[in-house]
Amino acid sequence: MTLPQPASPDPRRRVLLVDDEISSTEVLALILAEAGLHVTTAADARLALERLDEARPDVVITDFMMPGINGGELVRQIHARAAHRHVPVLLISGAPQSALRPYAVDYKAFLRKPFSLEQFLGAVRALLPPDTSERNAPSP
Question: Which residues are modified to 4-aspartylphosphate (predicted)?
Answer without folding.
Answer: 63
